[in-house]
Amino acid sequence: MLPRSLRCTARNLAGALATALAVSALAAPPTPVTVRVPAGTFIHGSDRAERDAAYRLDEAGYGHSVTREQQWYEGEATRAPATTSGFAIARTPVTNAQYAAFVGATGHRLPDVAAETWEAYGLIHPYSRTRRFAWRYAADGRTPVPPPGRADHPVVLVSHADALAYVEWLSGVTGRRWRIPTESEWEKAARGTDGRRFPWGDQFDPQRLNSHDQGPFDTMPVGSFPGGASPYGALDMAGQVFEWTATPAGDARHIVKGGSWDDKGCGVCRPAARHSRPDALKHILIGFRAVLDE
């Protein structure tokens, strides 16, 4: 065992390193890199063939038919043309480093969740699993410290209101209008105009995304799967984390899109897949990305 003086020195060095990393995160350029999605028509939603194929993917991945029995994909829009205006969307989800700049500048609450709140959600993930995603303050009590080694991972444990607060702040510091995407905008950015089932094409390929099929059962640095890029060059739009959208889905709920690192199959990772979550939810599977109006 190390002498007490050395142990104290080691703790002090670790604390200083954490603070330095937090300060470095706060200095990160706040403006996300974007890709352009032009105005026009795209194929929105899914048909019977796509939904059945998604159930088969889930059955192969999980070894059971729960998603089919619970009809997870029956609420998807019927496959048909839809139109959007032009916009630019962030190439990746908002990272911990980018979110740290916002928290440091505004004093906004840290990404975290209390144990009793998490238990009340009734989710399958134990509370202990949230701790690797939770933030803290440095010794000065003011500097936000993202989880160690995760500066370039997508921020999670953020509510819908947290996402809105970030894009409002980003608009103020850049002088341009940032927001979160609508469901249609998100879907178009993810699949392009031809109605493909995944960002890269019609066939599921577990090597093109962070899912539980081949992933580490955790978030990863954003952009780790360039082979999973959408036709416009957007990354991590299948797997990694679900993403909040601006599309409401009933009382105090919004649509989330994209699938996550704990999904197998991955039928839910298709751009056409959709489900809603309560606005106040702070989940280890949900982040967001920003959109810039043209």
Description:
This protein is an alpha+beta fold. Helices cover 29% and strands 15% of the residues. The protein contains 7 helices and 12 strands. The strands form 4 sheets. Strands 1-4-12-7 form a 4-stranded antiparallel β-sheet. Helix 1 crosses helix 4. The longest helix is centred in the first third of the chain and has 23 residues, at 4-26. It is globular. The termini are far apart. The model is unreliable at 1-27 (pLDDT under 50).
Number of E-state strands: 12
Helicity level: 25-40%
Rg, please? 20 Å
SSE pattern, N- to C-terminal:
HEEHHEEHHEEHEHEEEEE
Distance between the termini: 60 Å
The fraction of residues assigned to DSSP E strands is 15-25%
Count of helices? 7
Major sheet strand order: 1-4-12-7
Short structural summary:
This protein has helices at residues 4-26, 48-62, 66-69, 96-106, 115-121, 160-174, 183-191; strands at 34-37, 40-44, 80-84, 87-90, 136-137, 144-145, 178-179, 242-248, 253-257, 275-278, 286-287, 291-293. With 294 residues, the protein is of the alpha+beta class. Strands 1-4-12-7 form a four-stranded antiparallel sheet.
